[in-house]
Write a structure and sequence with these properties.
Number of strands: 26
CATH architecture of the largest domain: 3-Layer(aba) Sandwich
CATH class of the largest domain: Alpha Beta
CATH superfamily of the largest domain: MoaB/Mog-like domain
Radius of gyration: 30 Å
Strand content: 25-35%
CATH topology of the largest domain: Molybdenum Cofactor Biosythetic Enzyme, Chain A
Bound molecules: adenosine monophosphate, magnesium ion
Shape: elongated
Largest sheet: 6 strands, mixed
Oligomer: single chain
Distance between the termini: 30 Å
Length: about 450
Amino acid sequence: MSHSPNQPILLTSSLHVDHARKAIAALVDDLIQESRAINDPADIETVALDKAIDRILAVDLLSPIDVPAADNSAMDGFAFDGQCLDTNSAVVSLSIVGTAYAGRPYEGSIGPGECLKIMTGAVMPAGCDTVIPQEFTTAINELTIQFRQDQLKAGENRRLRGEDLQKGKPAIEAGRLLRPSDFGLAASLGIASLPVKRKLKVAILSSGDELRPLDQILDPGSIYDSNRYSLTGLLNRLNLEIIDCGIVRDDPTSLKQAFIDAASRADVLISSGGVSVGEADFTKQIMQELGDVGFWKIAMRPGRPMAFGVLKPIAGKSPARKTLFFGLPGNPVAVMVTFYQFVRSALLQLNGANQTEPPLVQAIAEAPIRKKPGRTEFQRAILRRSSDGKPSVRLTGSQGAGILRSMSEANCFVILGHEQGNIAAGDWVDIALFDGLL
Ligand code: AMP
Ligand code: MG
C-alpha cells in the first residue's frame, strides 16, 4: 500500500488499524530522511544523567573502559590457583597468606598450596583464577582451610575483566529510550552526561464551538475542554516540549490561522475534534491549502474518524521542516485510544527511538465480551490476579467513546483484533497496561 495519506481507497472504505499504522510509519520515515538531509546539529543536545529520563540516546555510547576493569571475585571466599584441583585427593588444604578487600587489592602473589581470603568485588591476585565460597570451607586453624574438591571447578566464582562491557564497544545503542538502569550503566563507565535527541515540539489544540476553558462558567450546550488535559498528560509521559494552542472555534479563518501558527513552531501538531463526517469538510478544505492530509475512517472502536498527514513548511520557518499532523476525533476516550494506537509510536519513531511499540500481555476474560469482526476494539478494563493466581481482566462499565470514567477507572486496554468475534468467559485476550504508557 502506498503511504500517501490521500490515497483514494482510504476515503471510501474503512481502513484496517494495521494499515493505518503502516502508512503512518512510512510517512514518518520520509520525514526522518528529510530531516537527515537538513542535518541540523541542534537536533542533538547533551544532558546530565539526572535530566535524561525518557530522552532518546542520539549516538551509540561507546565504553571508554573494560567493565569490570580487572578480574575480580564474585563471592566472599578464598582465591587460589585452580590447577591444584587436578590432584587426586578428595580434599584440598590451603594456607591463608592474606586478605583482599573490594577497593584494596592484595599486592603479593599466591603460590602453590596457598590461598587469599577475598571479598566480593576484590581484584583477583596474581596467580589465582578460582574462588571457593566461604561456606564451602572448613577452618582447620586460623591460617588453614579445607574443602572438598568436587564442590567446584577451576575458574569458578571469578568475574572476568571486560565481561560486562568491552572498551570501544557500544554500551548503549543509539535510539534507546533512556531508563534508570541506563544511568547506572553510564555512571559505571565514568560518563556523567549523554547526547540525546532534542525534545520534539508538539503543539496541541482543541477545536469546537462548544468547548470552554476551565475557568469559565458553562453556558447552555457548552462543555469543558478536557482533551487538551488528557493529551498534555499523555505527552508529559514522553518528556516532550508541549506548545498549547488552546481552544479554536469551528470557523475556517480561526482554524487556518491556528494551524499556520502551530506549523510555524512545532514538529508535530495534534488537534482533537472537527474530523467527524459532519465537520470534516471544512477542515479538509483548509488542509488542502496547508498540506497533504488524508481523512480516514478507521475500522476501530472507539476512534473511527482521524486525519493524518503533513503540513507544508511555513514561510520563514527555520529549518524548513514539515509538521506532522494528527487530527484526532473529539470524543474524549477516542482521543486517548487513537493517541495510544497511532500517535505515541509515531512520536517515538520521529525522534529516533529504536523501540516504539508498547508490550502486549495476555489475561483471561472474567465475563463474555461482545465483539463484531471487522474492526479492532480497545475496551477499557481492570487487570488483576484471580484467586487461582492467573491474570484476569474485566471491563470497566459502559464503554461509550465519550465516557472518560471507563478510562479513568481502568488500568489496561483489552485489545480485540480485527477478525475477532465474541469472547467467552475464560478466553485469553490481549492486554496493554496503562502503567508507564498513558
Ligand atoms: P467532534 O469530533 O468534533 O464531532 O466531537 C465529538 C464529540 O466529542 C462531541 O460530543 C464533542 O463535544 C466532544 N469533544 C470534542 N472536543 C472535545 C474536547 N476538547 N473536550 C471534550 N469533549 C470534546
Ligand atoms: Mg466538533
